[in-house]
What we know:
alpha/beta; FAD/NAD(P)-binding domain; Elongation Factor Tu (Ef-tu), domain 3; 16 strands
Amino acid sequence: MSINVIGAGLAGCEAAYQIAKRGIDVNIYEMKPTKMSPAHKSSMLAELVCSNSFKADRVSSAAGLLKAEMRRLDSLLLKAADYSRVPAGGALAVDRDVFSKYITDTLMADDKITLINREITDFPDDEITVIATGPLTSDDFAKTIYSKYGEALSFFDAAAPIVTFDSIDMNRAFFESRYGKGDGTDYLNCPLNKEEYEVFYDALVSAERAPVHDFDVRDPKVYEGCMPIEVMAQRGYDTIRFGPMKPVGLTDPRTGHRPWAVLQLRKENASGTMFNLVGFQTNLKFPEQKRVFGLIPALKYAEFVRYGVMHRNTFLNSPKVLNFDFSTKVNNNIFFAGQITGVEGYMESASSGIIAGINAARRYNGQDSLLLPDTTMIGCLSRYISDESVVDFQPMGANFGIIPELENRPRNKQERGQAYADRALKDLENYIEESVII
C-alpha cells in the first residue's frame, strides 16, 4: 500500500519527501511533460513559474522565520535552495534550473518514490492522497475538486519579465543594494529622473494589455502580492514610486543623489547572464512590454528572454473545507497542500506540503495528526486556513500579524522580529522533541 501525491510542484515534492523518509511508498502523479499548463515550461519537478526569490532570509523577518522552521523540519526545498543560491542581498534567491534539477534528482533517486507522468482527473476516496496541484490545477481536475468539496475561489496571478545582462545599458545602471546590504552586486538599479519617470508612467498606464480568459470563473481577482505593475500604477502617479520603484536607500553614482524612481533587477541565474525585473509582474501585450519597459533608460535596448505573463490561480475556501492538518473535513484520507489551500508564496506553499506530508504519513501509521505551536509561523498558517470564523477568505503569506503578541513587546522592529523568532524556534524545538516527528 502506498500514499498518492498528485502534483509535483513545491508542496507536492515536500510532501512526497516527508512521506518517503518515513519509510512509506509514494506515487507522485504529475501531468508534465505530457500536458503543460500555460505558465510551465520545464519538464523538471518543483518548477518556479514566477520569481526566483524566496524573500528575506534573516530569521528576524517573517519570511526568514518560516524558512528557519522549515529547515528544522528537514525541508527538501531549502536544501535545494542552499545548493542553487544566487546573490540577492538579504533575500534567498536561486538559479531556478539548478534548483529544480536538485529536487528532481533527489526524489528520483529514492526507491520509495515512483513518478507517474499522467494527468489525474479524479481520485479514490479510500486511499490516502495529498492533492498539491497548485494554483494552475487543470480544468478537468478542478471540476472534480469542485464537485466533491465546492467552495472554490479563483484569482489571477502575474509574472515579471527577464532580460539578458549584456543588453542592459550599464552607462545608465549601477549595482547597489538598498542601504548597502549584501556585497553591492546583488541588485542592478535602473534609475529614472522626474522627466523620464513621467514619460514611462504615462506610457505604462495607457499601454495595451493582453486579454485574460476567465476560465469559466465568475469573479476573478488579482491578488495584491502579485499585482501587475500597470494595475498598480493606475492607482496613482506615486503609487509605484512608493512600491516596486521606490528609490530609498540608493544613490545614483552619476549624480550623487537619490533617483526620482528606480527599477531594480535581480540575478535570475548563478552566472548572472539573465536578470529579473523585480516587482514588474505584468499582463501587457509582449510588444507593449518591450516598448514601455524600453522607456526606462537602462533598458532601451534590452533583450527579453521571457515576457511577463498572467495566469489563473485557484484556491479552496479552506476554512470551510480543510482541517488544521490539511485533511478535508468530509474525508480524513484526503489532504490538500500548497497554494490551492490559500497559503500564498513559494515557501508558504512548501511548508504546507511538509505538514500535509507528515500528517498523511501519520494517518497511514494510525497516529494522531500534528499541529505545530501557535507561536510558530507554520502553526499559525495551519490555523488560519482552517479557521471557520474567517468569512472572506483570501490567500495569506507569512507575517507576524497572525502570531500571538509577545508578552514584552520590543519597540524596535528588528528586535521585535528577533523576539518572535526566538520564541517560535524554542517552542518548535520543544514540540519536536516531545512529539518525535523528525
